[in-house]
Amino acid sequence: MPRERSCAAAAAGSPRGARGSGEDAGDLRKDTSNIPFEELLELQDQLGIKTYKQLAAGNSSKKQGSRSRVQNACVADKHRPLEMSAKVRVPFLRQVVPISKKVARDPRFDDLSGEYNPEVFDKTYEFLNDIRAKEKELVKRQLKKHRSGPEHEKLQQLLQRMEQQEMAQQERKRQQELRLALKQEQRARAQQGHRPYFLKRSEQRQLVLAEKFKELKRSKKLESFLSRKRRRNAGKDRRHLPLSKE
C-alpha cells in the first residue's frame, strides 16, 4: 500500500503524471457517466476532491448550457410548425387552426346600437300603429265568426292583450308629451332670465296622475276607476287584518 501511494504521488508529480491527469480531466469533462465508480475514486484521489468537484461542476454546467441553447433555438421562432411527439396519440378531433369564438350580440342591450330615445323610437316605428290597427280589426272579424269554443277564448285573450298594449302606448305617449311641455316651459323660463326648476320624480308622478284623472273625468270613467281602486285597496287592507279567533 505505501508503495502504491508513492507511485501515485510520483506519477502526479512528474510531467507525465500531470499529462495523465490533464487527459483524465479532459475525459472527465467529456463524459463521466461511462466511467466506472472505481476509476472515479482513483481520479478523485489523484486530482483531489476540490479539483474533481470543480471539473464535475464545469461538465454539468456545460451540459446545461448546451441544453438551454437547444431549447432557446426551438423556442426562438414562434411561427414555426407545431412539433407533435410520436409517443402521444393524436386525437381524432384536433384543432389545427385556432378559430375565434363567435359572440352573440343583442342590439337591444348593446351600447354599440346607441342610446334608447323613446321619442325617436316612436317616430321611427310609427308605421307599426297602422299594422296593429289592421290586425286588431282582423281579430275582431275572426271573433265574430267563432262565437264559442277554445278558438273564441284564444281570440278574446289576444284582443284583450292588444287593447292593453294600445292603452299602455297611449299612456306612455301622454307622459312623453307632459315631459316635453315641462321642458319647453323650463326653456322659456331660462330665456327670460329665471332660474330653472327641475321637478322631482314624485312631483312628476303627481302631474301624471292629475292628467289621468282629467282624462277619466272627460271620458266619464272616473267613477268606475275609483270604485275599482277602492275594492283593490279594501282587499289589501283585509289581507293585513289579524285573523278572528273562533
UniProtKB/TrEMBL annotation:
GO CC, one annotated term: 90S preribosome
Main location, first listed in the record: nucleus
Subcellular location: Nucleus, Nucleolus
Pfam families: RRP36 (PF06102)
Keywords: Coiled coil, Nucleus, Ribonucleoprotein, Ribosome biogenesis, rRNA processing
Protein origin, superkingdom: Eukaryota
Region (Disordered): 1-31, 56-75, 222-246
Biased composition annotated in UniProt, kind: Polar residues: 57-71
Swiss-Prot/TrEMBL GO biological process terms: maturation of SSU-rRNA from tricistronic rRNA transcript (SSU-rRNA, 5.8S rRNA, LSU-rRNA)
Stretches with biased composition (Basic residues): 227-246
UniProt feature, compositional bias: Low complexity: 7-18
Signal peptide boundaries: none
Coiled-coil region list: 152-188
Subunit structure of this chain's protein: Associates with 90S and pre-40S pre-ribosomal particles.
Function: Component of the 90S pre-ribosome involved in the maturation of rRNAs. Required for early cleavages of the pre-RNAs in the 40S ribosomal subunit maturation pathway.
Membership in a protein family: Belongs to the RRP36 family.
Protein name from the UniProt record: rRNA biogenesis protein RRP36
Organism taxonomic ancestry: Eukaryota, Metazoa, Chordata, Craniata, Vertebrata
Gene this chain is encoded by: RRP36
